[in-house]
Amino acid sequence: MFVRLRLFGFPVIVLFVAVLSSGGTALLAQSSDLDLSLHADSHATAADIGLPAYPGATLYKSADNDAAVNLGFSFGDFHFRVIAANYVTNDSPEQVFAFYRKPLSRYGEVLECNHSKPVGALTVTHSGLTCSDQHGGHGQAEGSASSSSGRELRAGSPQKYRIVGIDDSHAGGTHFGLVALELPKDSGQNKNSD
């Protein structure tokens, strides 16, 4: 997958183990103090991500990764979700970016990034989205993790955004990933000392 997610913290690791062991099914557990919801499958599409399918592109499955993933869990007020799909087209990366700029703009200003650095005058959107992959110490999300160039477009807010990432490491066609990412809010910002 062009997206690599690293989340830290014991409860998150336990939840990921539970998701992986569920075999792609949805799990639901409820008690008076706990509301836990998990889902995982490999059937995501561009429409699930909230973006149009690129004309003529096909899903791309590598030997190491599925072509698509839809993974999410909620644990009380903690919500995490990633929907991603990998595609390949004979068109250039510039054509792919040009196609997705307008659909991404539905989610806010479109930020272009290269190796986690902004390209052009826009360095941070009005909502606070940047090219940085750090999100409040809770986790890290990288679009185009296997990309040699790390080129991507982003739109949304720091907790909920879309990515179109180009993977320039393949010869013969443009490999790109579409991602919808919802990260947990930074619980550290609401902590008060006792």
Kindly summarize this structure in a few lines.
With 194 residues, this protein is mainly β. The chain contains three helices and 13 strands. It has one domain (4-185).
Topology:
Blueprint: E1 4-7, H1 10-21, E2 27-30, E3 35-41, H2 46-49, E4 58-59, E5 68-75, E6 78-89, H3 93-104, E7 111-114, E8 117-118, E9 134-135, E10 139-142, E11 151-156, E12 160-167, E13 174-182
Describe the structure in your own words.
With about 190 residues, the chain is mainly beta. It is built from three helices and 13 strands, in the order βαββαβββαβββββββ. Strands 2, 3, 4, 5, 6, 7, 8, 11, 12 and 13 form a ten-stranded antiparallel sheet that branches. It is globular and about 45 Å long. The N and C termini lie far apart (about 45 Å). About 30% of the residues are buried.
Distance between the termini: 43 Å
Assign the structural class, choosing from mainly alpha, mainly beta, alpha/beta, alpha+beta, or little secondary structure: mainly beta
Can you summarize the main beta sheet? 10 strands, antiparallel
Percent of sequence in beta strands: 35-45%
Summed up, the domain count is 1
The residue-averaged pLDDT reads 75
Global morphology = globular
Residues in helix, %: 10-25%
State the order of secondary-structure elements, H for helix, E for strand. EHEEHEEEHEEEEEEE
**Quick one: how many beta strands?**
13
- The tally of helices reads 3
CA-based gyration radius: 17 Å
Stretches with pLDDT under 50, minimum 5 residues:
1-32, 135-148, 187-194
